C-alpha cells in the first residue's frame, strides 16, 4: 500500500500559479510611478536653481573683491565707462574708447591674460583690433540661471562720434552692471536737454569719473554698486559702450527708477535690473556683501540704497 501511494504522489504535478501582472495592476503601478516622478522633478529643479543662485551670488562676491582690490591699488573705483569725442578730450556719453568698469578690474578677477593679450584700451571697442576682446566670455560675469547666449548682436541706434562702424557688432554677454543711480540716462547725459549734468549719476558708476569709498557718504553697507540683469529682455555686456550702439550706455550700467523685475516698457527693461531667479535679483554692496532684493521692495528704500550720498534715514527690513 505504501508503495502504491508513493507512486501516486510521484505522478502528481505541482500546481502552477498564474505569472505576471494584470492590466489593472500594471496601470496602477505606472500611475504611482508617475506621481512619484511628478513630486520629485520640482524638488530636483528647485535644488538645481538653488545651486545656480548660490553660484551667481559667489560670482558677485568675486566682483566685489575685485572692486575692493582695485580700490586698494588705485585709491578709487574705476569709472563707469570711458567716453570722449575723437579729440580724446571732450567727454561724450557715447564716445570712445568706451571701455567699462568691468573691463578695468579684469586683472583682479584673475583675468589679466584677457586684458594683456586681447584688449587694446587705446583703441575704440569697435576697432577691428579688439574683435577678439569684444566676444571674450568671462565666466565670472555670467549668471548660471541666465538663458541668453554667450554673445549677442548689437545694433545701431545711438549717437556716435565714430564713422564707418558696420553694425550689427557681436558683443560678449555679461549679467552684472554698474549702478548709475536713480536718474535716467537721457536726462543726465543728453547734452541737448537742460537736465544734462555731464552724465554724472547719483550712484557709483558713471561717465569718465571715479568714486572713492570716501565719496559713498551713505555708508558702504548701505550703497548698492552692482546689480544683476538677465538677457531675456535686455542683453548687457562686460566690455563697454560702443559708440552708436543701441542702448549702448545701458549695456554696462543700470538705473533704479523701478524695483528690479518691474514690468515696464521695453526701454525701461534696458535700464532696469532683473534676474531669472525666482527669489529676486542679486545686488552687490560697496562693502563686498551680496543681497537679494525682490520686486516688492519699497521704492523709497530701493532709491535710497542706490545712491551714494543721499543722506537718507531709513531702517532696512
TrEMBL record:
Q: What is this protein called?
A: DUF1559 domain-containing protein
Matching entries from SUPFAM superfamilies are given as: Pili subunits
Matches recorded under Pfam families: N_methyl (PF07963), SBP_bac_10 (PF07596)
Q: What is the lineage of its organism?
A: Bacteria, Pseudomonadati, Planctomycetota, Planctomycetia, Pirellulales
InterPro entries under this entry? DUF1559 (IPR011453), N_methyl_site (IPR012902), Pilin-like (IPR045584), Pre_pil_HX9DG_C (IPR027558)
What is the native source organism of this protein?
A: Novipirellula aureliae
Transmembrane feature ranges: 21-44
Swiss-Prot/TrEMBL keywords: Membrane, Transmembrane, Transmembrane helix
Q: Does the keyword Membrane apply?
A: yes
DUF1559 domain mapped to chain residues: 45-300
